[in-house]
Fold each of these.
Amino acid sequence: MPLDPRTGVHYALHGQGEPLLIGLPLMASHVEIFGVDSEAVLRGYLDRLVDRYRVLLVDYPSIGGSRDIAPNELTVDRVCADLLGVASAAGFDRFAYWGYSWSGAVGLQLASRTDRLSALVVGGWPPLGAPYAALLEATRLKQAAPEPSSLKVLRNAAQYRQWETYYESMGDWDEARSVAAIACPKLAQFGGDGDLVEAGIAVPIASAIRAHRAELEAQGWEVVEIPGHGHGVTLLPELVVPPVRRFLDAHL
């Protein structure tokens, strides 16, 4: 797997065809990070995509084989620049982007900053009415004791502060105006029971998407709810990949 010398991002390419960058929870070093039992999830995604799509996976941010990023440097600007940079290093000009949860939120930032996206898939995150303030508060509360699931990915507990940096850097980002301006084909997908509670703070995800569904659809979003599943539905490729594949096939 190559390392982009400019961004320091370690990446892997799979398959041939239309360029598709998939962010967290998939990674270039997925099995090395999560263990051999995670290979079924990775293969469940790739085996359903690589016949038509050139899939780019990245170790990002500061995970796996990628170089470190100081926690106080993980701003929205830095994240977008790094992902566009590694896409270029992988030979992608225009490309589809698919992210889940945090990387889904990153997709909204990318789509509002570049015309290089041919399609956008946002999983497990509301494009409108997103709980950015709630997550910023929760990350601040969890600095002293990040949950084990986070530490499984991060290099050390101090790195957890990068999420606080990221949400702080959004500043006065105009969500409504920015999302309304996204011109590429776009899909929002979520588990119907996908609301969260982080550090005792409600983080509405599924309910926020349902509340804004009519507005999203009026803006051209396709909205797919997977009933009976929570935020972890992303680990079930047999459920999440087929509707995304149909969407991508229809638009690319």
Amino acid sequence: MKKMHVVLLVLIAISIVVLISYTGDLSSYETVASAKQKEGKFVNLIVKMDKSVPVDYDPVKDPNLLKFHVQDSLGGKIAVVYHNTMPTDMEKSERLVLKGKVQGDVFECSSIVMKCPSKYKDNPNAMKEQPITISN
């Protein structure tokens, strides 16, 4: 075999290893029920805050501890513990994407991504009312 063939085979092998390592990071969105079945494994949840239960956050006592409850679209509920500061306007967000793992009856959250409410929700014709200007 020529040196070029050996180099190409090594590059292909490295590419395969890199692709396999990235597929481990790709995760699907789970419901609360399926996340509870995968206890201890990293999952993503799409939920909304359960506003019937108060948020437990005291920035003076412990600014890096936030506890709240969420509900998924199927009605599954779970308590969430987030060891970081409370994101601004989190309670106004329509949906939350929580990344973390279930530990017992609690979702240990490592990251929160908020879906902001649409400014066109109350007035669907608002987009039509705004003039569009194109500058060259």
